[in-house]
Write a structure and sequence with these properties.
This protein is α/β, with parallel strands linked by helices. It has 24 helices and 18 strands. A seven-stranded parallel sheet has the order 3-4-2-5-6-1-7. The protein has a seven-stranded parallel sheet with strand order 10-11-9-12-13-8-14, sandwiched between helices. The longest helix has 20 residues.
């Protein structure tokens, strides 16, 4: 479908063409014909950045009567910045309709300026709720002729506490009007407003209700809470071209994180409620034009910031509300571009990820925190890539003979090493001996709870000291799908096994680490426990190494020893059961059990 097929006025189509729009987005394709040809109210659910302003703005302009000097349409938005952006867009769409007058009214600006703009009655008022009520009380805005009321980002307005203001304004418009409600999510309050103030309304949903945009990849990193900032730095260093908003929970945390980033040499700044409007505008403008690479913000402060090409949204802290996460993640992956929503969490927050996954119907990918070596390698080759594509200034030619003479005693290899080291030593020095920041996901401490029930006098989580027994017996060679590339070290492997199995008595020997895999020995009678524990790890594949004589012998052993009693290998997901055939006739222990 093209815009020409939507039956808009020629003047509007010319403006759309001049703006470079060729085909309508899915929300525009559905909303514009509905607004032009139906008389019902509308609830439209679509993610931010999907073209909602044009979806309601183009048909509004098409339906207005330029010769009638009355306010015929009212657009409510939650923030000053969004109000200004909507007004700017509407004026661009109305470039070929010179008689249409559009006025934005919002707080944070001298009201006298807006009063002068309202001396000529606007056809469309774009407003934030608080300033609009002020102007209504002053008698400067009249809504008695409004035919179209648009609530843009309605869920955001409710989150910001505008429920009473919205209801006050709804009572001021004529009973015979159309209400057009646009929202990214459908919380209960939106549904209640729809039931109370809309009659016979239609719901148009683009994508799944309360879902995230398809272009966003959702990942998380698991760390100790006190190491969040160190993890943030590694994420940023692994993405040299990052352009991101970093969301924090409080103003104080926002200030602290931004100050740390700036102190450490990163191109960042903060956006929070303690800034004056002038300071806020300056920071936002610097970020929009990419003078800032990262913006650290609270949810409230970032509302209304319209940036279409973010590469990442980083949740320094997960929000308590799933709908807030939806809004955050929806700021990236816009205009058919890919984006990444990153969450930095500690082990006690894992349940929040599961909750968000269920709500968004998306799977979150756990990624390992990059090692110091990973970061250095990434930065090095990013620098080499920039050097390959740098625009050479011809003025350098005049100095080349002197430069060549000064460096003639150095080989080509030495020159490259020195230039690279000049740029790269900072990263090498910082990440030298950098610790592994990963922590493993721990299963529920069922043993502690059981011990507390059996022995109420003993605190949960504490174990009685016991002497370790030296184990002897047959060993099995194991293989795991993590190696040097993922930053595996012997220490990290042991920590992973301890945390996943929940038993520090698993004895590991003869560790061999390759680029992609790690091999290690365990005692045969510990195999079932290890296999059962790792079967629940979605991102880790554990299996006996090929040509493992001890494992093959053990599979044929009598079950009286209890080796397979818990069915650990059978319980593993099918894709991970690489140790034997899936057919029952190749598993003699099944026949043994039937006897």
């Amino acid at each position: 479908m093209t815009f020409q097929e939507l039956e808009l006025k020629d003047e509007i189509l010319q403006a759309v063409k001049a703006l470079g729009f060729e085909t309508p987005t899915p929300v525009q394709e559905r909303v514009i014909p509905f607004m032009l040809h139906e008389q019902k109210d509308l609830v439209a659910l679509a993610q931010t950045g999907t073209g909602k302003t044009a979806a309601f703005g183009l048909p509004l302009l098409n339906m207005l009567e330029p010769g009638r000097r009355q306010t015929q349409a009212l657009v409510l938005s939650p923030t000053r910045e969004l109000c200004i952006q909507i007004c700017k867009d509407l004026r661009n769409y109305a470039a070929g309709l010179p008689d249409i007058h559009i006025v934005p009214v919002y707080g944070g600006e001298d009201i006298r300026v807006q009063l002068r703009q309202l001396d000529r009655t606007p056809h469309i008022v774009v407003a934030t709720p608080g300033r609009l009520i002020d102007l209504l009380q002053r008698g400067k805005v009249h809504l008695d002729a409004v035919e179209y009321l648009v609530l843009d980002e309605a869920d955001e307005m409710l989150n910001m506490g505008f429920k009473d203001d919205i209801e006050t304004i709804l009572q001021e418009v004529p009973a015979e009007h159309r209400t057009l409600l646009f929202s990214a999510t459908m919380p209960n309050e939106i549904a209640r407003i729809a039931r109370t103030y809309m009659q016979n309304h239609e719901e148009i949903t683009v994508g799944e209700r309360n879902s995230g945009t398809e272009n966003v990849q959702h990942v998380y990193y698991l760390c100790q809470a006190k190491q969040r900032y160190l993890v943030l730095k590694r994420i940023v260093d692994m993405h040299p071209d990052i352009y991101a908003i970093i969301f924090c929970r409080t103003r104080q945390e926002t200030k602290e994180v931004a100050e740390k980033l700036m102190h450490d040499g990163y191109n960042a700044d903060a956006l929070h409620g303690d800034l004056s409007q002038a300071q806020r505008d300056t920071v936002m403008q610097k970020f929009r034009i990419h003078n800032l690479q990262m913006l650290v913000a609270t949810d409230v402060a970032a509302r209304g910031l319209d940036v279409s090409d973010l590469t990442h949204v980083i949740n320094y802290n997960l929000p308590d509300d799933v709908e807030v996460y939806t809004h955050r993640s929806g700021r990236t992956g816009r205009a058919n571009k890919k984006g990444v929503s990153v969450s930095i969490i500690h082990s006690k927050e894992k349940y929040k990820i599961k909750t968000i996954e269920r709500m968004l119907k998306r799977d979150f990918e756990r990624q390992l925190i990059p090692s110091g070596l990973d970061v250095c390698k990434k930065q090095l080759f990013n620098m080499i890539n920039k050097m390959q594509h740098v625009e050479v200034n011809e003025q350098i030619d005049a100095y080349l003979p002197q430069i060549m003479k000064q460096l003639e005693y150095l080989s080509k290899e030495d020159i490259i090493k020195r230039f690279v080291s000049e740029e790269f030593n900072r990263f090498l020095d910082y990440y030298k001996d950098a610790p592994d920041l990963n922590v493993e996901e721990k299963p529920a401490d069922r043993k502690s709870r059981k011990r507390q029930q059996d022995e109420p006098g003993k605190p949960a989580g504490k174990k009685e000291p016991r002497a370790k027994k030296k184990k002897t017996g047959e060993k099995i060679r194991m293989k795991i799908n993590l190696g040097e590339r993922q930053g595996i070290t012997p220490k990290r492997l042991l920590g992973m096994i301890n945390d996943v199995v929940g038993d520090r008595d698993i004895m590991v020997g003869d560790i061999e680490i390759t680029n992609k895999f790690t091999f290690f020995d365990i005692f045969a009678d510990q195999f079932a426990k290890l296999a059962h524990a790792f079967a629940s790890q979605n991102d880790i594949e554990l299996e006996p190494a090929k040509g493992n004589r001890a494992y093959d012998n053990r599979r044929k052993a009598d079950f009286n020893e209890g080796f397979w009693d818990d069915g650990a290998w059978d319980a593993a997901p099918r894709g991970r059961r690489k140790g034997g055939s899936r057919r029952g006739e190749d598993k003699p222990w099944r026949r043994n059990r039937r006897k």
